[in-house]
C-alpha cells in the first residue's frame, strides 16, 4: 500500500470512529432527555405494578404459600397471559399477596421509587377496590395503605400521587354503586372513578347510573376502552353518550373513525394510550399501536403515553415507553414533547400544581437542546 493510500485509509477509519462516537453521544443525550423529561403517569394499575420478586417477597412475609419456586417461574406464568382473560387470571392470582395496609403502601411506594429516575412527577394511579373487598380485605385497610403512600411519595420523592378507583365491568352495577358510596370518605385521596376488566356488551348502559352518581359526588370520570375488541366502535359512542367521561383509557380505535376523532376532539376528551397493552411477542402489534398514537396526536387529540401494568408487563415503565416510541416508532422530539405536555394537560390536578409541573417541564426542554 502506498503512503498516500495508507494515509487515506487511516483518515477514513478516524472519521468512521468519530461518527460512531458522535452518534452514541447523541443517543445518550436523547436517552437522558427522554428519561428525565418531567411527565405525568395517568394510566397505571397499582396491582399491575407488582413485579415477580415483589410478589414472592410479600407472599413470604404474609406466610402465604406460593406455587412458584422463584421469580423466573412467576415470569413464565406471566408469559402465558396473551389475552385479557388469561392476563386477569394471573393478575388476580398475584394481587392476592396483598393483605395488610403496609402491603398496599409498600407496593405503591416500590412503584414510585422505580420511576423516580424516569421523570415521573405526578401519578394518578388506578386501583381495583372490588378485587380486594371480594377476597375479604376491608376497603379501610386498602385506603390506609394508599393514604400513607400518598404522603410518603410527596415527602420522599416530591411526587404527587393520587388514586382512581376502577370498578370491574364484569361485576354487578349494585356492587359498583356500593363501592362508590363506600369511597365517599376518601374523596381527598380518590380523585376519580374508572372502569376496567373485560369489555362486556352494553357496559356503558350498565354503569350509566354509577357514573351519574359519581359526577354528583364530585368524582372525575374515565373508562377503559380496550383496543381492537368486539363492538369497540359502538362502545366508544355509548361511552360518550351515557357516561360523560373526561378521559378514555386506551381508546386507540378512535383513530379508525373520523367522526369519533372529531367528537373526542370537540369534547376535549383525553386518551391515555399504552403501546404495550398485552403486546408480548405478537408481531406488528406494537407498530400498529404506535401508528395509531401518531395519527391521533396529529389529529389534535389530547393523547399521552402510559405504562398500564409495568410490573406484570416485562418491566416497561413510562420513561422506557417514551424511549420505545422514539426508537421503534421514530417519534421526533416534537412528538415526544407533545405527548408529555398532554399528560399534564389531561391530568386532574388543580391548576396551581399543573402550572408548577408544566413550568418544570418547560425548564427541562430549555435546558436540553438535543435535536432528534
Ligand atoms: Zn389499564
Features:
alpha/beta, TIM Barrel, 12% strand, 372 residues, eight-stranded parallel sheet
Would you mind describing this structure in some detail?
With 372 residues, the protein is an alpha/beta fold. The chain has a single domain (38-363), classed as TIM Barrel (Alpha-Beta Barrel). It has 15 helices and eight strands. The chain has an eight-stranded parallel beta sheet. Helix 1 (3-36) packs across helix 13 and helix 5 packs parallel to helix 7. The longest helix is centred in the first third of the chain and has 34 residues, at 3-36. The radius of gyration is 22 Å and the shape is globular. 42% of the residues are buried.
Question: In a few lines, what is going on in this structure?
Answer:
The protein is 55% helix and 12% strand. The chain has 15 helices and 8 strands.
Topology readout:
Elements: H1 3-36, E1 39-41, H2 52-61, H3 71-79, H4 84-95, H5 101-114, E2 120-127, H6 129-133, H7 139-157, E3 160-168, H8 173-182, E4 190-196, H9 203-216, E5 220-225, H10 232-242, E6 247-250, H11 258-266, E7 270-273, H12 285-298, E8 303-305, H13 318-329, H14 333-345, H15 351-367
The chain binds zinc ion (ZN).
Amino acid at each position: 500500500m502506498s503512503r498516500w493510500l495508507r494515509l487515506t485509509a487511516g483518515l477514513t477509519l478516524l472519521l468512521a470512529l468519530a461518527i460512531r462516537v458522535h452518534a452514541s453521544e447523541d443517543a445518550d443525550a436523547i436517552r437522558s432527555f427522554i428519561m428525565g423529561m418531567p411527565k405525568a403517569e395517568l394510566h397505571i394499575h397499582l396491582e399491575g405494578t407488582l413485579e415477580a420478586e415483589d410478589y414472592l417477597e410479600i407472599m413470604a412475609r404474609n406466610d402465604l404459600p406460593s406455587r412458584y419456586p422463584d421469580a423466573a417461574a412467576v415470569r413464565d406464568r406471566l408469559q402465558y397471559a396473551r389475552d385479557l382473560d388469561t392476563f386477569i387470571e394471573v393478575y388476580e392470582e398475584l394481587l392476592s399477596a396483598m393483605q395488610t395496609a403496609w402491603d398496599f403502601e409498600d407496593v405503591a411506594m416500590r412503584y414510585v421509587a422505580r420511576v423516580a429516575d424516569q421523570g415521573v412527577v405526578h401519578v394518578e394511579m388506578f386501583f381495583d377496590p372490588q378485587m380486594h373487598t371480594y377476597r375479604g380485605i376491608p376497603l379501610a385497610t386498602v385506603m390506609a395503605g394508599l393514604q400513607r403512600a400518598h404522603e410518603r411519595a410527596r415527602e420522599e420523592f416530591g411526587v404527587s400521587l393520587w388514586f382512581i378507583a376502577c370498578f370491574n365491568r364484569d361485576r354487578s352495577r349494585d356492587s359498583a354503586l356500593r363501592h362508590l358510596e363506600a369511597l365517599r370518605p376518601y374523596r381527598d385521596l380518590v380523585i376519580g372513578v374508572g372502569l376496567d376488566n373485560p369489555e362486556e356488551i352494553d357496559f356503558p348502559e350498565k354503569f350509566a347510573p354509577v357514573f351519574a352518581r359519581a359526577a354528583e359526588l364530585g368524582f372525575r370520570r374515565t373508562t377503559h376502552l380496550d383496543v381492537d375488541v368486539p363492538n369497540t366502535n359502538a362502545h366508544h359512542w355509548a361511552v360518550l353518550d351515557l357516561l360523560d367521561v373526561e378521559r378514555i383509557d386506551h381508546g386507540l380505535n378512535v383513530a379508525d373513525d373520523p367522526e369519533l376523532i372529531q367528537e373526542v376532539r370537540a369534547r376535549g376528551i383525553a386518551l391515555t394510550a399504552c403501546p404495550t397493552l398485552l403486546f408480548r411477542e405478537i408481531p406488528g402489534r406494537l407498530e400498529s399501536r404506535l401508528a395509531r398514537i401518531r395519527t391521533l396526536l396529529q389529529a389534535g387529540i389530547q393523547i399521552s403515553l402510559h405504562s398500564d401494568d409495568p410490573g406484570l408487563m416485562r418491566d416497561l415503565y413510562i420513561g422506557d415507553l417514551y424511549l420505545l416510541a422514539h426508537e421503534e416508532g421514530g417519534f421526533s422530539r416534537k412528538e415526544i414533547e407533545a405527548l408529555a405536555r398532554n399528560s399534564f394537560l389531561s391530568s386532574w390536578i388543580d391548576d396551581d400544581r399543573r402550572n408548577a409541573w408544566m413550568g418544570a417541564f418547560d425548564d427541562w426542554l430549555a435546558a436540553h437542546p438535543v435535536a432528534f
